[in-house]
Each structure stands twice: as C-alpha cells, then as structure tokens.
Batch of 2 targets.
Target 1
Amino acid sequence: MRTLARPGDRRALVDRLRKVRPESTPRWGRMSAPQMVCHVADALRLVTGQKRASRAPGLHERTVLKWFVLYAPLRWPPGILTSPELDPECGGTSPSEFPADVSHVEALLELVAGAPEGLDQRVHPVFGRMSHAAWLRWAWLHTDHHLRQFGA
C-alpha cells in the first residue's frame, strides 16, 4: 500500500509530477495542469494545517466508506468534487509560475511526509479526524489521482 511515509513512494510521485507540463491535457475534469498543481499544493496545505476547508460532515466519516476510500485496492474515479477552498477557480490558490508551483508541491510532499506525529488532530473536510498514517495515505492517493488525471 503506497503512502507518503515511504521515501520510494514519495520519489515516484515527484518523478511523475516532473513529467507534467503546463500544456498537458487532462484525461478528465476541468482543471488545467497549472491549476491541478496548485490544487494538490492546497490539499497538502490542508494536511499541514496551513489551509482550512469547509466541512461536509455526514455518514462517510463514520462508516466503512472512509476505510474503503483509503485502503481498498481501487483507483479513485474521475469526477470527485472538491472543497471550494481547494478549487483554484473559487477559493484555492491560482497558478503563478509553473516550475515554482511544481517545486512548491515537491517541498510540501516532503513537509507532510516528515510531519511529526500529531496529524491525527487535523480534520479532513469529508472524513473528519484521521490517524497520522491515514493522512499520509490520503495525501499519496490524492496526489496520485491528479497525476493520473494528466497521464503522469
């Protein structure tokens, strides 16, 4: 099971991230490649507590769905909605210079991976409180999902 906790898994994500170009065409969704990079950065900021997102509480934070999303051996499907605060067209970060935005994601991946225990105090907008390990798994899955969106 891949996670940001494993250095090899992080390196593989970074290698894939570096293959994305500003003009890369999405396989699904409405984000451009520069917007996707900023969205991934904002999601990682959510993990570190640098960014907050509005809650969408419900049964999914207390049921098997949370486990299924994090641990089932299936890829996340296209079309998952995001919080407005993480959407680059609403309240999320707008792209600036693509190479700098990519470097920022690389640094955030390392920051999240090296976060001291205590991520379990963070609240995910959909899944509520998650363990430290679950946050590292979620961050890997989320980044992977968007890299696949751009064929990386």
Target 2
Amino acid sequence: MNKSLKVIDLSYNSFSGKAVSHEFTAVFETNRTLEYVGIAKNNLETVDIIPIIRSFGRFPFPTEQVAAY
C-alpha cells in the first residue's frame, strides 16, 4: 500500500473507460493518502467515472491511523 502519494494527475492521456474502471479502481480503493486525482481531458464519460467515485471511501479508515496521517 502506498503511504505517501497525495496527488496523481492522469489528465491528457488517452485512457479508455475500461482501463480507468478496471485498472485504477483497485489502486484508489486501497490508497489512504490521495487527496487529488486528476483525470481531465481523457474523453471519459460519466459512466466511465462512476466506478472510480464508488471506490473512494469504500473501506473505513482505521481510527488508530488517523494521527499518523
């Protein structure tokens, strides 16, 4: 698990909706430090983004780790 990545900007790439929903969702589900994800200008549609949005906050943040972050 990544413990330091806060910003990832994937804008201006040619990601397909399938790549975004399948490849990135697993990363976003487990990363606890991300504060910003940029995916603009990839020709994605709302239906492509929904799996990403649903992946954030899917797992509760452990209370004992709050102070560390």
